[in-house]
Amino acid sequence: MTDLIKLRGVDKYYGDYHALRDINLTIRAGEFFSLLGPSGCGKTTLLRVIAGFEGVSGGTVMISDKDMADVPPNQRPTNMVFQSYAIFPHLSVGENVAFGLRKSGLNKADKASAVEEALSMVGLAGYGKRAAHALSGGQRQRVALARALILKPKVLLLDEPLSALDKKMREHMQVELIRLQRAVGITFILVTHDQEEALVMSDRIAVMFAGEIGQLDDPETLYRRPNSRRVAEFIGKMNFLPGRVTATGDTITLDIAGFGVTDVPAVQAPEGATLGEAAIGIRPETLAILFDGEKASRHEAAAVVDEVVYYGDMTYYDVRVNNVPEPLTIAMKNMIGRPVLDVGAQTRIAWDERAIVVF
Ligand code: ATP
């Protein structure tokens, strides 16, 4: 994939407030890229900087190797779909979609076929004559998408486009958006504060905190190898145990509270890890309760159930393990014939050193 958007040393101040701090970022042509982070971290600002709605206080924004400093939003190869999908309720669906073409100079017949093509892309073929105000939330979102796509931008910028939809509809539209992005092949940049949404949809994700990019990786790497505790905690759940690094090299030797001594490959620790205290991260689904007679394939420890939260498909247990200061959370899939343990039950848990992340 070729590089499409390059941000180099981008800073943005609102008065004294430093909203973007030295952002360096390359987005490739045709990728589904997400900006993920907590409220106020600067995701929307970054998107608006790419679109040209906000100027930068320092650094450069390049699109297709062209410096965008003096290029206004309407002359950039980008188009934005907003959080509150601003469609015109008094117009028809087709008129809403055609709105994007008002300055295109196309004749009536060409406009009509472009509208129909855009509507069919978003699964609304034949809806052109309907009144926009009579659409459901999901359909309105599709109309907003069609209106943005009809201009054939190189980059579609999506600012929390699904946040107004209920959970079921949002999950449905996530899949539709992925399909749409693959079908049209243009670059999508999505702003979201929803980690699951970002993991499901993206080729790569930039996780932002306080105006900075904390980590930029593909979903699996972000989840399995978070580079900091704050990334680990923002993306999913993670248990942290106190431990010590007692030897370094191609393998790292760890002494973990309650779990004892184990070796892990160096990739599971930060680059240049040094001897001494470390936080040991373990995801809840990489731990397991051992039921009657089950044996751990790697290691096990005795535990007492402290709390049980039943989710239907899953049960989350908090368990206490001797010498581990905090209870550990374990996510177990509920299976036929597998009981749900009670609080206070004595059990054994399995852990696997390959699932450890050292911080
Ligand atoms: P959210 O998910 O809540 O929309 P965000 O990550 O998109 O958050 P931004 O909207 O980019 O965050 O805002 C980043 C910071 O900059 C916030 O603290 C916000 O209050 C501030 N900010 C944004 N726009 C302006 C503005 N026009 N003037 C002053 N401050 C602003």
Automatic annotation (TrEMBL):
Signal peptide coordinates: none
Keyword ATP-binding: yes
MF terms in GO: ATP binding; ATP hydrolysis activity; transmembrane transporter activity
Any GO BP: putrescine transport
One Gene Ontology cellular component annotation held by this UniProt entry: ATP-binding cassette (ABC) transporter complex
Keywords: ATP-binding, Nucleotide-binding, Transport
Occurrences of domain ABC transporter (ranges): 5-235
UniProt cross-references to InterPro entries, sorted A to Z: AAA+_ATPase, ABC_SmlMolc_Importer, ABC_transporter-like_ATP-bd, ABC_transporter-like_CS, Mo/tungstate-bd_C_term_dom, P-loop_NTPase, Transp-assoc_OB_typ2
Matches recorded under Pfam families: ABC_tran (PF00005), TOBE_2 (PF08402)
Protein name per Swiss-Prot or TrEMBL: Spermidine/putrescine transport system ATP-binding protein
Native source organism of the sequence: Loktanella salsilacus
High-level lineage: Bacteria, Pseudomonadati, Pseudomonadota, Alphaproteobacteria, Rhodobacterales
